[in-house]
Amino acid sequence: MDFNNLIKLSDNAIKNNKFIQAVKFLEDAIKIKPNSYDLHLKLGLLNQHLSNYEKSIHYFEKSITFDPRSVSAHFNLGLIYFKLNNKNLSLKYYLKAIDLDPKNFLVSYNLGNYYFSIDDIDNSEKYYLKSIEIDHKQFYPYNNLFQIYDRSNNFIKLKEIIKKIIYIFGRTPSVKFLEGIFEFRKKNYSKTIEIFRNLEVDNKDVQRSSLKENILAKSYDFVGSYTQAFKHFSKSNLIVEQSLKLNSNKNKYIEFINQRLSLNFEDLINLELESEEIDDLKDPVFLIGFPRSGTTLLDTILRTHKSIKVIEEKSLVDELINHLNKNTGGELLKLNTIEKNFIRKLRNFYFERRKALVSYEKNTIFIDKMPLNIFYIPELKKIFPKSKFILAIRNPCDVVLSCFMQPFLPNDAMNNFFNLEDTAEFYDLVMKLWKKYCATFNLNLHILKYEEVVNNFDYTLKSLIKFLEVEWSDDLKNFYLTASKRGIIQTPSYNQVNMPLYTNSIGRWKNYSKQFSNVDPILSKWMKTFEY
Asked: Which of 163, 178, 204 is where one domain is finished?
């Protein structure tokens, strides 16, 4: 078949969405013209569309050899490597593309997305603004700037951007959605209800429709309409739960905990290492607890201290456990047989990962804050025998309610929070495991109650600071001022960290006492255990 006929056939196949056929025709065509830039670029784009990224990369790289100034090839390589989570190569190709074409909207916008993904506010803002300069009628850069200012609690810029969005785009459903969030941030809950109650959101957009229901629920909660609030919290959770039916395993951690509870923990007593030093690296402090127990508040307070650095909810321990399990097969009792040389490697693995997240400074206390690292006490005790643990405790009923109310990013653990019953049962299991760990291991532990932090700040925090062996600083009292400068905050409590201490979340569960009737038997024993 001649070249022109192959091109016609590939074009027709593309028009009819028969992309695999189009690729085959172009592959035959490229045998006739192996040095064609256009054919290599087309094959790169088609394979990219089909998620054949290896082939796509090959064709884009070849097209660059024929035209080193190809903006399209460089840009699309940036997109592919970004999708493959190779951030270094993604940035390399994006920067080359913007160098070749500084006024390219898509390149500028996606550079903004790149920097947003690594929490680089300054550069993400810079490139979103640049993309708006290039084409001020595109909605997405404005939307993403709104997200940046919202999640970094930059209320001045948030107000400016929503005004621009309304002026340029009018009050479309997408704009009304942002306006509802803005009114919620202003604590104008009646206005938020007015906007969201009548706002139609595409049911296929799970994130937006569930968030709309969640903010509506919180607004009803703040104005005292608790029956309506509970209804919309349930609706928000149901939207997410139904979307996850085929991709969720909420029983993963339940099975994990039950398996550990079935073990004879007396066999684990030998896990603790001898007291001699493994290396000269200082063991970390782990801030743990059930989600919504006040770990974010403690994180915000502690990072105010000049001698303390907090690593906020990164997967350091998960990565460490995965590395460990390659040796043990995930069998807890095999920890007894691990040699010190392997432990040294595990420690180096953890500290190298940590160094990539936060710079090392001598005499600094590093706190690894991830609530559900509470699962891995035996492993952490084995690998870091001189580590310290801070356990955040809060009224169990308030914890369960807060987990139910919070729009977490879905994962196997958080998918137990779609209703009060599952949340309470998960809380019960986690605390049973914690209790068993405490009975087995001699932990260097400090327990902190959320309510005591709120009601008796100085005494409670001075006790914690003493435990951490650093000097008291009055800066801790102004933690919410430091929080305003933190940049993008990833935890669900991002819109609360820059606020002074408040008491309205203490005893909040009592507003929903009717809904708690089914879970009272589960939680009442923990109320007694923790003296509530």
From this structure: 204
